[in-house]
Design goal:
By secondary structure, the chain is mainly beta. The protein folds into two domains: 1-64, no CATH class; 73-381, Glycosyl hydrolase domain, family 43 (Tachylectin-2, Chain A), CATH 2.115.10.20. The chain has one helix at residues 26-60; strands at residues 66-67, 71-76, 78-85, 88-94, 99-105, 112-119, 128-138, 141-149, 161-168, 176-179, 188-196, 202-214, 219-230, 244-247, 261-272, 275-282, 291-297, 305-306, 325-331, 338-345, 355-364, 370-373, 380-381. Strand 3 (78-85) and strand 4 (88-94) form a beta hairpin.
């Protein structure tokens, strides 16, 4: 029985056979005793079966006080981003070929579809490959940053991905194009992320990507480095802004010798006390070794120093977790707990672009060390403050 659930009571009425002895002959009593034994045996099997069935139904409906990863009831999504607004969570991610869908939740576990938050139109600069949306609230509006290709398939596909931005008055959209692309330096960029520092100063972080050889023909590898730059208050990016290199692959767990992908990507920046933190993912998204590490800095643009305890979230094939990565970070409904929201491969035995949603608790101790209580596949308490 899960703590917090009411006990299921089943009343079993068995006739009091002995009180009617004076009115029954011995043959009748013998028959009644057989019926009594039969009924007792039946109910001994029915009671636990009914209890288990009812408990299973309650867990599926999340009337319990626990959850089990992956969450979202067969919600397939990658590169998750979550924003909290007016007591509701809104979820976005890589979810469609022509834009981005949105879901809402009160507890980070049960997600309800809201349709498209952003959908490509005939006038959109982007044409395909819609990846990794993130939404923030800023100056009374909601801004979505994402990457896409501005052309159909053809030559030099690796150079076509750009960072774009759209805007809406509501977290669920519809979002309309604002800066498309946000900047264009004639190289490919993905995984845009905006961090608003104390005082309201916005910063952009993104991954610059490229190739060595032809990795699509298994002759070479992809590479990715994380850059950062300060934005204007309207989230535009002046052409003369300096772009600072923040992180690149140089550790074995990050895939420094990989012939598939040597990429740092999927970053999230936040501040805790007087220290800035950046979580990031490494390896190729379809690789079981895709995982999460973190770095710290004294200022938003660095220098960034990677933790010696990396990775903080990695595969555990024994419990069915492959390729956990590309996270965001969000508070529980009452603000007392911190959760890391990330994707993992839907089929650990055949890792691919098909991914599912996970949430686990994250903690920073007095020394500034960041740890994740996960990846988990066992029942966990619902986020604190869940109604």
């Amino acid at each position: 029985m899960v703590q917090g659930q009411e006990k299921i009571q089943i009343r079993m009425v068995v006739p009091c056979f002995r009180t009617c002895a004076s009115n029954c002959n011995y043959a009748t009593l013998y028959t009644l005793e057989i019926m009594k034994t039969f009924l007792l045996n039946v109910f001994m099997w029915i009671i636990p079966w009914v209890t288990i069935q009812d408990l299973s139904a309650q867990i599926k409906g999340n009337n319990s006080c626990t959850y089990v990863n992956p969450v979202g009831d067969s919600l397939y999504i990658a590169d998750p981003s979550v924003v909290f607004h007016e007591n509701l969570y809104y979820l976005y991610g890589t979810s469609a070929s022509d834009g981005f869908k949105c879901w809402s939740s009160k507890n980070l576990v049960d997600w309800h579809p809201l349709g498209y938050a952003y959908k490509r139109s005939e006038d959109s600069w982007g044409k395909s490959t819609y990846w990794a949306p993130e939404v923030i609230a800023h100056n009374g509006k909601f801004y979505m940053i994402f990457s896409c290709k501005g052309g159909e398939t053809g030559e030099a596909e690796e150079t076509k991905l750009r960072i774009c931005m759209s805007v809406s008055n509501k977290p669920e959209g519809p979002f309309s194009d604002l800066y498309a692309p946000l900047f264009d330096f004639n190289y490919s960029c993905i995984d845009g992320h905006i961090f608003i520092d104390e005082g309201g100063v916005p910063y952009l972080f993104y991954e610059r990507v490229g190739v060595v050889g032809e990795p699509w023909n298994r002759e070479g590898y992809f590479w990715g480095m994380i850059f950062g730059a300060q934005l204007e208050d309207d989230l535009s990016l002046p052409g003369n802004t300096d772009h600072q290199l923040c992180l690149y692959v140089d550790k074995e767990w990050e895939g420094s010798e990989s012939m598939h992908a040597r990429s740092c990507e999927g970053m999230t920046v936040f501040k805790n006390k007087d220290r800035y933190y950046m979580t990031y993912s490494c390896n190729h998204y379809s690789d079981p070794n895709y995982g999460i590490g973190y770095a710290t800095a004294k200022t938003p643009l660095g220098m960034w120093t990677k933790s010696a305890d990396n990775p903080i979230l990695t595969k555990n094939l024994d419990i069915g977790v492959s390729g956990p990565g590309h996270n965001c970070i969000i508070k529980s409904p009452d603000g007392t707990e911190t959760f890391i929201v990330y994707h993992s491969h839907a089929d650990p035995d055949h890792p691919s672009g098909r991914r599912v949603l996970n949430i686990d608790r994250m903690h920073i101790d007095e020394e500034g060390k960041l740890t994740v209580i996960g990846p988990s596949r066992t029942p966990q308490a619902l986020p604190s403050g869940t109604l």
